[in-house]
Every structure is written in structure tokens, then in C-alpha cells.
Amino acid sequence: MSDRRRLVLASQSPARLGLLRQAGLAPEVIVSGVDEDAVTAPTPAELAKALAEAKASVVAARPDTKGALVVGCDSVLELDGRALGKPADAEEATARWKDMRGRAGVLQTGHCVYDTLSGRHTAATASTVVRFGEPSDAEIAAYVASGEPLHVAGAFTLDGRSAPFIEGIEGDHGNVIGLSLPMLRRLLAELGVGITELWAN
């Protein structure tokens, strides 16, 4: 019987789950159900952190997560000082891409870890600069028609169909996909947990 701590991901994101699994972790997924529109903060970076804390705290408070380490994350794209989450519809996704092309934005991902054994938690935001290419109107229309941008923060993702429209990034690649593993390691360490202790056998 392993004494490895139970790890719970408070997110329905397949990309986040995939990143954790690739890093040797085996989290359970429990979706928080937090109303993201009800969470506000003065800056995009603070908003991302507040959303991550909200998600993690809701799941950490559940009786069935007692003793677990709960990880919450949320991402927004900061452009012109605004926090851009998932676009509401195809029209908004199209306008967003026309606004982003040829420019750079900052992908802000909030991370929060709750240790339900100690009752302690810690949180921080990781920031990665994303430089967008200049897709044509036809390419944007085709991308929006694929449906992908409606399901991801900022209306783009590095590991999907929009990858050819992104010229480069400055910072952690995983952070743009949805979770910074180096940030997670640091937050776990603050709570006295080594990430290698959580590796699945």
C-alpha cells in the first residue's frame, strides 16, 4: 500500500490533466463548479489567482477530499490591461483574433494548492508572454469554425489548431497550456511537499 499523498485537480481541463500525467503524477479530477463570472479582481494576474483559489477552496472543503492536496488553476490572457477568458461565441472569438494578430499578450495562470491535512494553502500567478502571428481573415474564420477557440482562455492554445498562428513565447510553455509545473513544484515545497513524493509508481 502506497503512502503517497492523494492529489486532486480542481479543473476539468484535459490539457492540465495531461501535463500532470506527463510529469509522473496521477491526479483525480473533481470539478469545482465555481461561477467564474462572479469572481473579480483589480488586475488580470490577480484575477487568475483569485479564480484558482476559488476553485481549489471549493474542492478542498468537500468531505471526500479530506487528506488530499488540491490543485486549482485558471488562465486569462492579458491584452491592453484587460483579462480575456474564453470567448462567449464565434463572433467574439473572431474579433479577438483580429485584435491579437501581430501583437503580444501575457498569459496569466493562477495556481493554488490546498493541503487539506494541515489546512494551509498557497497561491501565485505565473506569467508567459505570447507573440501572435498574423493569420489571414480566412485562416481566422476557419479556426473559429473548428470550435476550438470557444473552449480555451484567450481563444487560443499552443497544443492545438492555433499553434501555427503563434510566433513564439517568452516563459514557461506549460503555463500557456494551463499549468506551470515549476510553479506547482514551488508551491508544493512551500507546503512542505516534494513533487517527487507524488510521482505515481
User: What is the CATH topology?
Assistant: Maf protein
Largest sheet: 7 strands, mixed
- In total, the number of domains comes to 1
Rg, Å, rounded: 17 Å
Task: Estimate percent helicity.
Answer: 25-40%
- Overall, the morphology is elongated
Kindly name the structural category. alpha/beta
How many helices? The count is: 6
Low-confidence runs: none
CATH class: Alpha Beta
Tell me the span between the first and last alpha carbons: 11 Å
Mean pLDDT: 96
Proportion in β-strands: 15-25%
**Order of SSEs:** EHEHEEHEEHEHH
Family: Belongs to the Maf family.
Cofactor: a divalent metal cation
Main location: cytoplasm
Enzyme class: hydrolase
List the helices and strands and how they pair.
Blueprint: E1 7-9, H1 14-22, E2 28-29, H2 44-60, E3 69-79, E4 82-84, H3 90-100, E5 104-115, E6 120-132, H4 137-145, E7 166-170, H5 173-177, H6 181-190
Parallel strand pairs: 1-2, 1-3
Antiparallel strand pairs: 3-4, 3-5, 5-6, 6-7
Helix pairs in contact: 3-4
